Amino acid sequence: MYYYILDPHNIPQKNFERQQAELQSLLTEFNVSGEMARITPLRLMQDLVDTAASRGVKTLVACGTDETFSQMLVATKDRDFTLGFIPFSKDTQLGRILGMTDLHTCVKTIASRRIEKLDLAKINESYFLSYLELGVGEQTNKPMGLMASMKLFAGSTIDLRMRIDDSYTIASKTMGALIINTRGTAMCAGGPIGNPQDGHLDIIMIEKLSRFTAARYKKEIESGCYERIPGATAIRCQQIEFLEPRGYKITVDGNEVSRIPSLVTISPQKLRMIVGKNRTF
Amino acid sequence: MEKKEGMQNGESIVGPSVKIDGDLKSQGNLRIDGTVTGKVKTSQNLFVGESAKISADVEAENAIISGIVQGNVKVSGALVLGKTGRLVGDMSCGTLQVEEGAYFAGKCTMKDVNGGVIEPIEENATKKK
Question: Do B12 and A169 touch (CB under 8 A)?
Answer without folding.
Answer: no
